[in-house]
Amino acid sequence: MLVLLAFIILFHITSAALLFIATIDNAWWVGETFSADVWRICLNATNCTEIGYDFDDYATMQVVQATMILSTILCCVAFLLFLLQLFRLKQGQRFILTSIIQLLSCLCVMIAASIYTDRRQDFHAKNKQLYSQTSGGSYGYSFILAWVAFAFTFISGLMYLILRKRK
């Protein structure tokens, strides 16, 4: 039982770490001379432009930022709630509340990554001065980590739904 518990805790911590890296790191869209994420666009690794009010599609980018932050917070809350329920829950009961919060975290990651996938070209095309410099490129590892975090949070949410407290 301790091995299973250690695996679940490690899996959840890995999910949270993936969410933190995907939210913070500047590698959602990368090319040879630039990198872009949900916070800024950097040209030549030194000339960084914050995504602000002058950014044409700022409202949509704020949705991506907010849902990634919310998913990270929900994942951490779910972990703390799991630890609390681990000591407070009666034997034989399920970790339903932890599962719901973790699945909400999963939903937030999916929303953020889906919006970014759908609107990525619009983000750069509407900003003509940046588009000429960021037109070529591919999805970076932070974007891929966001989708991996989606899968991890979904699996851990299902694990909590199935998991019963045992002695």
UniProtKB/TrEMBL annotation:
Which compartments is it annotated to reside in? Apical cell membrane; Cytoplasm, Perinuclear region; Golgi apparatus membrane; Membrane raft
How is this protein situated with respect to the membrane?
Multi-pass membrane protein
* Principal location listed in the UniProt entry: membrane
**Gene Ontology CC: one annotated term:** apical plasma membrane
Cross-referenced Pfam families, in alphabetical order? PMP22_Claudin
InterPro entries per UniProt? EMP-2, PMP-22/EMP/MP20-like, PMP22/EMP/MP20/Claudin, PMP22_EMP_MP20
Arranged from A to Z, the UniProt key words for this protein are: Cell membrane, Cytoplasm, Golgi apparatus, Membrane, Nucleus, Signal, Transmembrane, Transmembrane helix
Q: In UniProt terms, what function does this protein have?
A: Functions as a key regulator of cell membrane composition by regulating proteins surface expression. Also, plays a role in regulation of processes including cell migration, cell proliferation, cell contraction and cell adhesion.
According to UniProt, the name of this protein is: Epithelial membrane protein 2
- This chain's source organism reads Pteropus alecto (Black flying fox)
